[in-house]
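User: Show me an example of a complex going from sequences to structure tokens.

Assistant: Sure. Here are the input components:
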Amino acid sequence: MNNNIQQTGNSIYPTSLISFRVRYAETDAMGVVHHSRYLPWMELGRTELLRQIGYSYRQTEENGFFFPIIEAYCRYHSPARYDDLVNVETTIKDIRPPYIEFCYQITRKSDGLLLVTGRTKQICLNKQGAVRREPLRKMKEILDSQKGKH
Amino acid sequence: MNNNIQQTGNSIYPTSLISFRVRYAETDAMGVVHHSRYLPWMELGRTELLRQIGYSYRQTEENGFFFPIIEAYCRYHSPARYDDLVNVETTIKDIRPPYIEFCYQITRKSDGLLLVTGRTKQICLNKQGAVRREPLRKMKEILDSQKGKH
Amino acid sequence: MNNNIQQTGNSIYPTSLISFRVRYAETDAMGVVHHSRYLPWMELGRTELLRQIGYSYRQTEENGFFFPIIEAYCRYHSPARYDDLVNVETTIKDIRPPYIEFCYQITRKSDGLLLVTGRTKQICLNKQGAVRREPLRKMKEILDSQKGKH
Amino acid sequence: MNNNIQQTGNSIYPTSLISFRVRYAETDAMGVVHHSRYLPWMELGRTELLRQIGYSYRQTEENGFFFPIIEAYCRYHSPARYDDLVNVETTIKDIRPPYIEFCYQITRKSDGLLLVTGRTKQICLNKQGAVRREPLRKMKEILDSQKGKH
């Protein structure tokens, strides 16, 4: 695999930061967090990033727009463990309606150890499953108007 | 993202096929399987592929060797739904000790609809976290000796 | 706690049996299956029991009826481990429309070791969240007419 | 089922309160949190309650003591939804070495709506799986000495 993860810090778009403790239920028999469990953390990061720029993903769904994941990539650098405090940094990598890409950097809060980096790509659909460009065009405009304010 | 998924059918290595029903607990509020839930299905596919070529991953761990995931990539083509019968085809893409890569093709059994393709890369470690090449060298030898028998 | 688990074998209603292997993703850092993971297994058991008596839970939801869980009880006797083959026996304990209760017995297939017993109670609602008695009255009639055939 | 949930507020032992947002990955196709997902929230509540009285469950495991769940009971009053802010109140219901029981009350933060109440019972084991009374005797002494300070 040859995947360059864009550093979250380099994005022209805003970055969100959330912190929380690793749950016991997220570990596996190897004694560390199961690799599938980082995807829900990234989802949590996206939700907060969108809230920060004025979007409620919950409201977006209630308005009839959905953003299913069409691609996801994770690189596991070091394992997170039960009760670790972790940071999830999320940024928007690119918006090309109907697509939006996010990238993520997950670190251990105590010492900044890099745990996982990742990317996800989503597509905007309406309730009937038809591709919709407007919601992301609007988001892009809002983000462009906010540039330099971060 | 630019990720070529090698077709599982093209591999020089054996392929395993497992089938099971989608669990309700694997769905999310979008009414389809949550994107993080395909990774445990791929894990299930790996376990069966290894069993098929004579390896028990459980036994391998009991012998002190672990294969943590260092990279994972998923491409979501169509969503799986509750109670769907799904097929998971798993093959070994490459073995370069201490690394092993698997690729996966997940389809709906009723009509063959492509749901998800993916790749994972793992590294062999011992209990102390030291990199170990022997277990995969041995596996590669066994697989090479079985070639043409599949 | 003082909870008598009715033996699944004593029910006047039919029993379903499903078998599958424990997934790695279902284990936790204690090296055994996480206690929350048995509930989805029971759900799988219910789905198969209903299918066996001629009901598709998926179809039931598509028809606009939902059966959210209102109570769940689990007793953990012995832990299941990764790659164990397990049996889940499910039976209907009681149907008092709009309620239905199931009970479960989860055992290790290799030696019959008792792993977990449990009960769940569900209520029938329509899409608007209103309580509905008819679907379970109908199910009870069908089951009563099948009695003695099991 | 006939299960009286002791009110968390009545306990002679301390109570912990944690708050967090519901993750999308915790929902199911019914559009609400899957019933199995409340158990990891209770686990999170226990971890914080123990931390509050001076215990690190992680440290306890590193010292060779484990507290597997032997019984769990949940009563589901109202469903939690994606992005809800929820409160989990945890208290110790009883300590009778080698057993400890916790009870939980999960509410929606915005309006106090009762979502789920529950109880869990755990047993203290050492690494070899032998029952151990000392760790909970010591915890009980510490808690008794703290009484009246809450």
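The lines above are the inputs; the final block is the predicted structure for all four components together. The domain at 8-145 of chain B is CATH 3.10.129.10 (Thiol Ester Dehydrase; Chain A).
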